[in-house]
Design goal:
single chain, mainly alpha, about 5% strand
Length: about 160
């Protein structure tokens, strides 16, 4: 272990082969190893580095009907930032609410003789509202504003927060 023996001198040597560094308690340690010529690549030390989330990923979650599937996958894995999980919950809640309303109105229109036209019109309003709310949320996210809806976000956190997060 003569390469790592502390020596009590006050001189500073040159860096490189046989370089000297000040060790603990004022003792100098001599390292007899050749200098490293390769540069290290800086790798993140954290598993989820604090990089900003790409907006395109959040916008994909809010695309009507199609965004349901990546949102469900994100919640199923349970990995993602707090914002990703919140937007995923909101997207799934909006899609399931629309689907439930669509199916109920279509079933009512199919079974009723008198209310058929009215229920189909309500169904089209429900579908248009779902698409407009999704586009509005996409525009808000593009502007850097919050992607929360007062009623649906709390509902999504209560219901889907229990089962998918």
């Amino acid at each position: 272990m003569e390469n790592f023996e502390p020596k009590e001198t006050r001189e500073w040597g040159s860096r490189g082969a046989g370089s000297r560094e000040q060790g603990a308690q004022g003792k100098e340690v001599i390292f007899n190893s050749p200098p490293c010529t390769q540069q290290r690549a800086s790798l993140p030390l954290l598993p989820n580095p604090p990089y900003p989330i790409p907006k395109t990923q959040l916008l994909l979650y809010l695309v009507p009907i199609i965004g349901f599937f990546p949102s469900l996958w994100t919640l199923y894995r349970g990995q993602g930032s707090r914002e990703q999980l919140a937007i995923s919950r909101l997207s799934i809640t909006l899609a399931l609410t629309w689907l439930l309303g669509y199916l109920l109105l279509a079933t009512g229109a199919a079974t009723s003789d008198f209310l058929t036209l009215r229920l189909f019109i309500l169904n089209s309003f429900l579908t248009s509202g779902y698409f407009l709310v999704s586009v509005w949320l996409i525009l808000r996210l593009m502007q850097g504003k919050s992607g929360r809806l007062p009623g649906f976000s709390t509902l999504a956190e209560r219901v889907l927060g229990k089962y998918l997060s």
